[in-house]
Amino acid sequence: MSFITDKQTLDDLNITGKFSPHSLFSLFNATQTRGGEKLLDRMFHQPLSDPAAINSRSDVFKYFHERNLSFPFSAAVFQEAEAYLGGSTGSSFLMVAGDLLRKKALHLTIKDEQYGQFQSGLLAAIDLLNTLQDFLRKVDGPATTQFETVKKALNAHRTKWLDGTQAGQPLTLFQLARYDHFIRHVLREETESILDFIYHLDVYIAVSNVARARNFSYAQALPKEKNIFRSTAVSHPALEKAVANPLVLQEEQNVLFLTGANMAGKSTFMKSLGIAFYMAHMGFPVSAKDMQFSVRDGLYTSINVPDNLNLGYSHFYAEVLRVKKVAEEVAEGNDLVVIFDELFKGTNVKDAYDATLAVTKEFSTYRNSFFVISTHIIEVGDTLRETCDNLQFSYLPTIMENNVPRYPYTLTAGITSDRHGMVIIENEKILEMMEE
């Protein structure tokens, strides 16, 4: 079963998108090859749901994280070798030699460039294979099937001729035909595996180097039956000086009811948590210390729900449809992470109170999922305390210093009593300005 989510969640958390400002994909995209970038994009769109697969990928990233390696290929050589290896050749040595003889004749008579491009591409491919072989001799690599397969291919008896072929060494037409037939026909499967391996190597090095620079760590995936999430410090990966907060979610307390004033940091904390869950399911480094999590079937958020004027949807109705979508997934028995920021803010206070209370109570009965629900309507929390035993209540405080609010962004147990909206309005002198 694959990890389920949707575009709304990816947009809320700004996960994907090469051209999306400050997206998580852009943060990690320090790849050197087009193939590496495409592979990274696929990983971002295909989180994993198997604990063993997640931990295995994390272990590979950790291996490179600890060694601080650089991508071993020059961009020019790699691009030329990649273009050459992507082409086809004859199925027999005689066919290759005949075609090459024709190209050389055209080169000598009308200065056709095909022969020179062929020779340059082949030499670049040989250089690439030798460079990879040298790299793997110096780096043991993690014990994965992919690494072992490539090592075996490069150390096989039929590739020993590579050791005697140096970059820039002139080759005869006979050698060119022989090597081309060997690389692009006899070893076709192996060279495709090697190219794919290099794209993975590109991603491993790029991502681990970003993680090291930002002091990210690696989460441990647990079976879903454990039904636990814990971390001593969750923060937002795109903020360099983000305040980190601890959090534990488990079956006995699977709902976090979050309150706090505007600008106190509720949305940022909820995004941080959603991103940590998503990146951990990818097996990627996370901005969370000592993180352990039971794998979930999916993640849904409702943070920036847009209205849809073309369909005649108001903001409130769009919120209702969003809650309905998530409720359907929860009711089907999926183990989910659900994050709702400011439920039903598109309607009046009375309806918002009733709806928030009813929806939170109903969702809380599904103890196989984790829920984080924030609201300004703090009275809801007082009622939920009396009716639900599996909620934990936290808030992000506002500290007033000389009538000026300060936000420490530290998660605090309880329900906020902060009511400083009018103080902020008065500080901005809005009413005085209008009276004048």
From TrEMBL:
Molecular function (Gene Ontology), one example: ATP-dependent DNA damage sensor activity
Keywords: ATP-binding, DNA-binding, Nucleotide-binding
Domain DNA mismatch repair proteins mutS family, residue spans: 253-432
Signal peptide extent: none
SMART domains: MUTSac (SM00534)
Domain of life: Bacteria
Protein name (record): DNA mismatch repair proteins mutS family domain-containing protein
Short name of one Pfam family: MutS_V
GO biological process, one term: mismatch repair
Source organism of the structure: Chitinophaga cymbidii
